[in-house]
Amino acid sequence: MDALPALPDTAGAYRWFYADVTAGEYSAVFIFMVGSLFSPRYSAGVKRGALPLEHCAVNFALYHQGRRQRWVLSEYPEASMQGNGRALRIGRSLLEYAPDGTVRLEVDERCAPFGRAVRASLVLEPQVPAAEELQLVPGLPHYWRALAPRAKARLEVASEGVVSEGLGYHDSNHGAELLGARLPGWHWARVHGPEETVVDYHLPGGVAPVRVSAGALGTKCERRPLLAEARPTSLTGWGLRVPARLHAGNTVVGVPKLLESSPFYARVEARRSGLDVMGEVADFRRFHSPFIRWMAHFRTRVERGT
Fold first, then answer.
1. Domain span holding position 236
2. Beta-carbon-side half-sphere exposure of residue 107 (alpha carbons within 13 Å)
3. 51-73 pLDDT, tens per residue?
4. pTM of the entire structure?
């Protein structure tokens, strides 16, 4: 992959880099955010001109057999580009694109809100080309690109004694306005199968969903027709609507395990017979509620800088 893109610099804008891995009994998620979607301070401050570089964050979560083991969410007032634009540093953590295409994510943090030290790394070796960048909703300035839809992955969590290999995934979202202002939310899921990875991105308001398919024949990105009948959903304890089943095409993989559940966001996972599904549901309008912003403080560490 090429050097990292320019970081956003206008109020309400954002860019984040997401990666996940399924490795044996473990799964993990790494997110580097400039203009943090989890930041109550950024949400409240945009009307006063808050800038994305003033609200950067690192998120890391480790799961074992569908249960969370560690949660990191640390917010910083700065980030920096390094290595001729190939690396992004937030606090002590680093996202780096090597010239050979390898992606390395290193987290050196403490659990939120004031917990134990966590040191974790993820190395991705992409097995397929990146997808093209896509505007999620016509007329709105929000974009998504699957950078490494299917990758050989090595996960190490030194603080927990975890070393495991498996399949990884990497993408990036960016936008020029605050999420929830006009784009209320989305839900998406990626499915690793034995030979192919498929990512389905569902959007509100009757917008056609997006599908990325990545395998031996390359990577394809396309708009899909809306389903004639909506698939069943269920409500979390917070009242957030999530899929009742996770699918690989028309195959039911299973009832989703709630890896994370909050009033505005859920992370779900299911595995069966060589199929692995991980996805997210987000309602950004909910996050901008003052009460929910207040709750978000308790899952975040705020650092003064490096």
1. 14-302
2. 32
3. 999 999 999 999 999 999 999 99
4. 0.96
